[in-house]
Give the backbone structure.
Amino acid sequence: ATEASASASSSSAPAPASVAADPSARSRSPRGRLLKKRRFFRRKSSRAPKENFLVLPQDGFEGEDEEEDEGAEPLPELSLLEQANQCLEAFPPQTGQARELLERALEAEPESFEALDTLGVLLSEEGEAEKAREVLLRSAKLRPEAGAEKFLYLAQLSAGAEALGHFTRGASILKAEFEALKVAAEAAGAERSTGTSSSSSSTGPPPAAEATAAKASVERRLAPLRQQFAGVQASIAELYMTELGDEADAEDKCEAALAEGLAMHASSLELLTSMVAHRKIQGCADDAKAAALAAVAAVKSAIEAAEAESDEDDDDLMRPCVELPDEEAVAGLCRHLIDLEQTSEARELLVGLLERDEEDLRAWVLLGWCHVVEKDPETAKDCVRHGLRLVKQHGGESDDFKPELQKLLKKAQATAAAPKPLEAIEEENE
């Protein structure tokens, strides 16, 4: 996609091919680079509990009668699967204990597809790909008509046509769940609205307000399924741009996947970013820019919604949390923006990433490329210096960014009066 956009562009900007490189993805296949960190389902434990939650004392309140009510029924004992889910929903997740409980559950009931699904996802996220694949395939054989999650994880553990088959199956299940939930939620909302209007009083809310609240409630329940379905369609489109790109009708099928996803979720960052890549491959620079700017608007809207939620007192515990856009997805969009010379938009998003994590090496590298395209070599070299400090401070995987910093420095120095080697800048940092 990057090479196509470079050939279609007639500007004098530096070769965008160097911008799109991601050192953290070097050892992965093209599809792996695109899909490895895509998460279709987020567990409750992904966010820390709010600090203002009331924490009850373990021993009860002072003066509270410690004797149990003799007439009260004992709480039902949790199953092994329920205990495992509690471990996974804890903060931080207790994955080791959850795995042990799931294995015990499967010893007692080998054909429990729920336990198989949960264990397969856990193994996948723990990096045990072969074991995860085996467990998830067992579950898929037992219950192929339900449970989209297992098919989406299987897709990311597979390649080519097999991955496409799993993605397609997962998308079909998600769409069926979406339609069923939509019908049920709308019917419940209509029933509640009718009941309210027939027994309305002067103290109750007006019917219009009730209808608005009911519609918002339906949308909150549908939103997660919209997002998951959009992510699957983006993955299918990316398959047709990479591993399945040699198929005769790959372009049409890629277009169809994008259209189907956008019909359900028109502001999906993943879909719009995939649309940008597809338009660049086609050599349609103007359409690629339009899609990229639409993706920028989607990111800003999501950030505003998340910030608005954090400023409110969240008394509705059933309302889904609004999450900030995924950092990797935003960085991928910024690469496209830089390739398309939309550097002011890219810079704004990158600064936002650095406000969330000032040690994000990927963001510093991309910010440096922004300044190279804007012919501001000195500021680009400042980004290189900061990146080198972080590489030296953290080491390990951070060292993978050093070649990219070297490439960025060479581009920055191409217009400088007195170029300095990377070693000289490292000495200046010290």
Notes: The two ends are 39 Å apart (CA to CA). Residues 1-18, 20-37, 41-68 have pLDDT under 50 and may be disordered. The CA atoms of residues 96 and 390 lie 32 Å apart.
